[in-house]
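Protocol step 4 of 5: obtain the predicted structure for the target chain.
Materials: sequence only (see below). No template structures provided, no constraints applied. The aim of this step is simply to have a reference model before the mutagenesis design in step 5. Sequence pasted as it appears in the construct record:
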Amino acid sequence: MGIGFLAILSLLPIAAVAFFLVILRWPASRAMPISYITSVALALLVWQIPALQVAAASVKGLVIASELLYIIFGAILLLNTLEESGALWKIRQSFRDITPDRRIQVIIIAWLFGSFIEGSAGFGTPAAVAVPLMVGLGFPAMAAVTAGMIIQSTPVSFGAAGTPILVGVRTGLSGSGAVEQAALAQENISTLGLQYLTAAGQVDWDAFLALIGFKVAVLHAITGTLVPLFVVAMMTRFFGSNRSLREGLQVWRFALFAAVAMTAPYLAVAYFLGPEFPSIIGGLIGLLIVVPAARLGFLVPSKTDPWDFESPDKWEPQWAGRLSFDEKHRHESDIGLLRAWCPYLFVAVVLVLTRLTSLPLGGWLKSCIVPVEDIFGTDVSRTVMPLYLPGTVFIVVSLLTFLLHRMDLPAYGRAWHHSARTMVVASVALVFTVPMVQVFIHSGGGLRDYSQMPITLAVGVEALAGSAWPIFSPFVGGIGAAVAGSNTVSNMMFSLFQFDVGSRIGVDPTWIVALQAVGGAAGNTICVHNVVAASAVVGMVGREGLVIRKTLFVFIYYALLPGAIGYWIVWRSVKGSLNAGSLLAALTVAGAVVLIVKSRRSDRAWKV
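Step 4 output (structure tokens):
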């Protein structure tokens, strides 16, 4: 079969998701079994993968699904514990003391706190922490999930202390002599001031990854500047009483201020310290800058009545989740603000301490393993590290909260009961979603000797793109992450392919790998099993397609703008500064500026 036809066939499992989940708005529990069956049929009939390998990949998917469900359970348990102890009411009040304006709250929680948690733990943990926190503060469940998914972009490439770069890109590129030869052949070996050759003329892989990481940070810092504004604008447009984009864009100055407060230190850390700490330190410094500024009203709109959602009885039914809170514990709790926030502080500190490779704690936790090796006699394996999973952190902190907040056993028992019920509901969708992904990925090595479906799809796109590949590169990385549910896995699959394409078209291949990593981060905004997991945490299973319909625009923006910038960078010396990339980037930014200007004029007219 020709590569073009194989690429089209490789697209069918993804097309099935798009058609049934997004277009027809089926719940994931109905749409994902169809996608799974499509992947299995292609693997068996076209790629001619042995049935045992397909079965092994499916079992691996079930193992990974159980890990996700464990994380979901821990996140819900912690939140229900805080609700039963009365601490959640205190946390809610603390945000109202900073500002009652929901537009400012979502920037602080989703963008800044979410970025810090992503940098600490990765693997979808921000959705498990920030999304239920927003629901606990009174956000509609769908608004919270949408906001949580949109910010799964800028911080993701440096999530879990740089894992997508340090593990994903390194694994994808290592072992290839072509990469070292191309690196040695680069005329400008000190690109952006970062040397990656040793005194002996060999490639220093740590420095080489730091170079790629800084390029990733540059692209993210530019593109991520508008993400907080997108979060707010989409919240007011889809979940406000007036369905107004303008009401969100009114906070454009504060949103840009909050964006730069995170991305400026993020970029500096990527240059001076490497890929481990940009999201952690960027999110933390952003919080330290933005929270006091919001409390003082700096750049916050001066409307008499701050923006808020309508009362829950006026929400559309599809907005709400089963996770809901009232104020029944308001008068029962004498918990102080610091004690109320301690569980989240514990989570943040423990996640950071266990993810830093310079400390031994993570190694100790990783030493406890449950190996699932050579499933059905194949080379498909999965090693589970239960103590290292964020779910364990959540459960341990929940137990500490039980003691710290002096809860009674019946209240704590209710927290466990409600959390278990929510996890069971989420399991239906995940038991098909993740196995589909694993069959899709483990589709190489069959009787036909075709490449894996993701690689086949990427090769087909390359054949069409030619020298315009930099524009398409982030989309390939994004599709890989959207299917695999991981920027790290996407980088493992595609980094070498992207490097080779860059070399073949005659441009700096490190920029193409950087575009891959940025696209892989963007793909998390539309990743099905991330949306399923985030929705499950707040009891909103069955409406995943509605969330993806909203975040799809952000994914297109987040893949298109870096692609345009990347095209301009790699072809500038040949095609001049005014090329297709610069024009495309200018059009993208101009569109955003026009929206902001129109919003400002409307705001002035409204005040008059």
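Step 4 remarks: The longest strand covers residues 370-372. Residues 51-85 form the longest helix (35 residues).
Proceed to step 5.
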